[in-house]
Automatic annotation (TrEMBL):
Signal sequence, start to end: 1-32
TM ranges: 269-297
Name of this chain's protein: DUF2167 domain-containing protein
InterPro entries linked to this entry: DUF2167_membr (IPR018682)
Keyword annotations of the record: Membrane, Signal, Transmembrane, Transmembrane helix
Natural source organism: Rhodopila globiformis (Rhodopseudomonas globiformis)
Length: 308
């Protein structure tokens, strides 16, 4: 259980869930509670607090890892975490292991997942600068815009880093947050951002994510740093415990970072060439074909003239 001060702050942050019980009870999640879920938000709220772990204790993050908590942080275990996410109409990841809550409670929950993708070699992360990763992320977002437009959603683009990528090679951890906005948003616009952190282990990685405003990203980043500093893989499950026969993550480092591929930042000429490579190649082949045909006809006419 959390200490008294931390528990009081979390209770105040979660209080909106418990108070409007009448209104919440008419929500779809409350009306059609699945088997095993509590029928009222107040029940889920109370149960989450009973099962949560707070500073200065260590909380389990699935079978491979745990985290030592500090300050006002608490960890809500998997079952209770899923119930709270349902009540807030938030998606429940299939690999959810816990929620990380700070002073803002469910206004800014940290989603903790363990992705059993296999071992990811993070050594190449040191070779990519922040501009390289922004370019890689920008390409991934751009490639997803066709599907977004088909769903009548606005096209998006990466504007800047809110929290530039930070790579800790000793701890095998990476954290970052980008500002991704509709392409039509005016320059200088702010909005929400998703803070991300990945900690690599032998059989997969812990991924922590939190949606927050750009203005609150600094405080949320401190919360991330505190949790990452206390995160630890169990003996036999740590990054350094990998064996040659262990399964490797098929999508590698790029997949763990949510990107299609990692590459160095392209120059404007390089980006133009990449975007127009098909047209350039087609034009080149057409030109070569036309010249070959011209040479053929001229040679043919020459040979015909020699025959007569």
């Amino acid at each position: 259980m959390p200490d008294a001060g931390g528990l009081c702050r979390i209770v105040l942050a979660l209080l909106p869930l418990a108070l409007p019980i009448g209104a919440a009870a008419t929500s779809p999640a409350a009306q059609a509670a699945a088997p095993g879920l509590f029928e009222t938000p107040a029940d889920a709220f109370a149960d989450a607090l009973r099962h949560s772990t707070g500073a200065p204790a260590r909380a389990d993050l699935g079978p491979d890892a745990s985290v030592r908590l500090s300050g006002d942080l608490i960890v809500v275990p998997q079952d209770q975490a899923a119930r709270l996410l349902v009540l807030w109409n938030l998606p429940v990841p299939p690999d959810l292991v816990a929620l990380l809550l700070g002073p803002k409670g469910m206004d800014a929950p940290g989603i903790i997942r363990f992705v059993p993708a296999g071992f990811v070699d993070d050594a190449t992360a040191a070779s990519f600068a922040a501009d390289d990763l922004q370019s890689s992320l920008g390409d991934t977002v751009a490639r997803g815009n066709r599907a977004r437009l088909q769903q009548h959603l606005p096209a998006l683009e990466v504007r800047r880093w809110v929290r530039p990528p930070q790579y800790d090679p000793a701890a095998h951890q990476i954290s970052w947050a980008a500002l991704i906005l509709p392409t039509t948003a005016p320059l200088g616009s702010d909005g929400t951002t998703t803070l991300n952190a990945v900690a690599f282990g032998r059989r997969g990685y812990i991924k922590l994510s939190m949606v927050t405003s750009v203005q609150d990203a600094g405080d949320a980043g401190q919360m991330f740093d505190a949790s990452l500093s206390g995160l630890q893989f169990r003996p036999g499950a740590a990054y350094g415990d990998v064996r040659p026969g262990d399964r490797r993550a098929p999508d590698g480092l790029a997949g763990a970072l949510g990107m299609d591929a990692l590459h160095k930042k392209r120059t404007m000429l390089g980006a133009w060439l990449l975007d127009n490579v098909t047209a350039i190649a087609s034009g080149f082949l057409a030109t070569v074909g036309a010249l070959s045909l011209l040479v053929y006809f001229r040679r043919h006419r020459y040979l015909e003239s020699r025959r007569w």
